[in-house]
Amino acid sequence: MSVRTVLLYPHKEGAAFDINYYLKNHMPLVSELYGPFGLEHWEVVKFPENDSPVYVVQTTLCWKTRDRLAAANASKGAEQLFEDIKNFSEVLPIALTGDRVGKL
Description:
Blueprint: E1 3-10, H1 19-34, E2 39-46, E3 55-63, H2 66-73, H3 76-84, E4 94-99
Helix pairs in contact: 1-3
């Protein structure tokens, strides 16, 4: 069963989110550090400020199993990724993990 982790970066008045750094530096680092643990792919959605005042960005990480996700999150790479957040966001993401139960 496929597992999805959704990271939601909340909108906070006056807080910056550097989408260019995120896409060009952080997400390739995610691929490099989490790929060996079974990260299948990722997707980033940027919400227009006027359409979604609650969230700025949503990232979905796709995994084959929860065990692989758990191993990635317990790795040194996870610490490195967490430390990198300050380079693109002033706000920590909300993380949700669930099993994919349907697909078109």
